[in-house]
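A reminder before we start the practical. When you read a complex entry, don't treat the lines as separate problems. The point of joint prediction is that each chain is placed relative to the others, so the output describes one connected object in space. Small molecules and nucleic acid strands, if listed, are placed in the same frame. In the example below there are two entries. Take a minute to note the order of the lines before looking further.
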Amino acid sequence: MVEPHHATLTPAVRRYEALYQALVFGKSSWNLDGSTRRNDALDALQLGSRLSDGSVNVGLLTESEWFIRSVHDIIRDFSVSGLGANQTALETVAALQNIIQRDMGSFGRSTLDAVQVYREDSESLTETILTTDLLVSVMHVLLVLTLYIVVFHRMVSVLMRQVRDLLCSATLQCSVCACVCACVRDTMCGE
Amino acid sequence: MFSPFHGGTTNQTQTSDAALHVSQSSTTSLRRRVIGALVFVGLLQCVNVVVGLVGLGDIAARSAEVTAAGRLRMMTHFLAFTTREATIGDAELWSNAEAVALASQRVEE
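Here is the predicted structure of the whole assembly.
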């Protein structure tokens, strides 16, 4: 037996609405920060804007509410029985025509544009992060080189001097050690 | 009684003590510098980790946004298709339960 339409469509519509709200205003459990007031192009697309010819674009958020309202109209009117596969009868249903026109028209195109703008925004952020990481890495390399000059180079010099002093002044009892030290001493002390 | 040998030994001892003191001071200074350098390198690595984590989190959030926008686009098509099927209501293609269950499954978070 087919379930009533309202019992199955309603959760999907609610999820759709929740996803839209989360995308625009953020929802931490879905790892969405919300795009409001972050990108002007996205704000104009989602929240609406005034066009150059003086007309007003209401934005995807408002259009999605109209879309959802039409879906609720369908759920309310056809939760028990449908009209059948009759194109003429379907064309008389204003809510369905509204949904189809929005899906095929400006609303559908705008949702596709929104995906593109979100992708470009993501790529822009990725480039910024990569540049920042590059700068941080270069700075770290410079600092490590500075540390080498200030500390490590001096440490090696001090250690070499101590080894040279030890070898040049040592009186070793072991014949092997003495032989090795003599060779090193000849090299380091110039004797 | 003054002894030149005794005085020479004292001077040598004092010179040796002074050299030892300078050497110890130099070693202590060097040790401090090395420890400071190691701590500094450790801090640099911590900065690297923090910067990397922040960048990774930002990129993950933006990727989630792109995914959500794509899902919304898909859901728009799906809802339009499903409402048309609901309006027809003959369950010829598939039942509304199957259609909407699939749509809900696709947008499951």
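Discuss with your neighbour: The CA atoms of residues 11 and 17 of chain A lie 10 Å apart. What might explain this?
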